[in-house]
Amino acid sequence: MKVARREKNQNIRFLPPMLGALYISIFSGFATAEPFADYDTDWQHNSVDKRLEHTASTIWTTLAGGHAVQEISLAPNAGAKGAAAKIDVTEYGDDGLFKIYFAYDEDRYTTLSAPVGQNRMVLYVTIPSAGEGNEHTFHIGTYSKDPATAHTTSNVGNHWYHYYELRGTNENYWTKMYMDTHPQHEVSSKVPPEENPTSPSGFNYFDGLSRLYLQMRYSAFQSNWPGPYTMYVDEVEFYDETRTENEYSINSVAITYRGAGEFDIDWSSFSLYDIHNETYEVKYSSNPINTTADYDNAQLLPGTPAGGWGLDNVGHHDNHYRANFTIAGLDESKTIYFAIKDLYADHPKELKRVDYLVGGSGDSKPKAPAGLKVSMATAK
Is the pLDDT of residue 13 over 70? Predict the structure, then answer.
């Protein structure tokens, strides 16, 4: 049974951070990075090779074979500011399940420049309902290799998985998926990965990312095919979270709006392979939760169980946690801020902060929340 906190190493820097299009708003105290893939500016559809291409770089979003039969296109006016990537899953194929590489360089052996100096990624995706009582297991799959030797080695790097168990919804609302430096699994290993798992090799996990994919890995769709379905992906962004956060036992966070003020917040803890004793407290606010005082003044989620979220996991290996709740009278035009806290005595006490803006996602066409903001506050 593992309960002790692992040594934090996610803030180690071996390469200078890439500033890119980062800018700081003095008045709001936020930093916002331009999206890596917004599928609007400088994106085109290559129908012959079945991929989306960024015309100002060598980046693609492309289909993965060996799963469902899929078609990819650009969907005008379906995203936050314009187009979104649209994936039509048309036939069952090998397993009926969706998979795309959303960050793929034409030179498959090089490392991506956008993640350098960053420690977070966020993307938006619409996910069809898994059916009553069911959920999909999604992977964000990553490959990371030493950027100093990337151009001289013909491999894509070591392979990690970030797991998300999501119910989906047929109401055209978006799921906002966060990825940090703590994956849940390394290929061919039964040892839980550390935060920033490449640091023993002398480079940061995000600095060495060479490709990333999004996959519906396990689903009731494999045995109960619903027929053709469509998924949208939008606003892929890498950024640097400057506040100290708990990545050890709060990672792979996803927020799904279900309509009428109802949300799912899903996350993972420290290990797929060890017994869990932790439970969690989650608070929300209409203002950013930067400091301890902000957290103290925020409200507990409606319906918070006595003892915290995740009581069913105590004494078990289950590494997935979910808070399902409804905020009465939710103003869908305003961002809502959440902070998750591990209540177990031997685990880190830093928060994990996420946010969500419903925006126009209730429209007949999916519309991703706008205003992807990251606080630059350094308080814990």
Answer: no
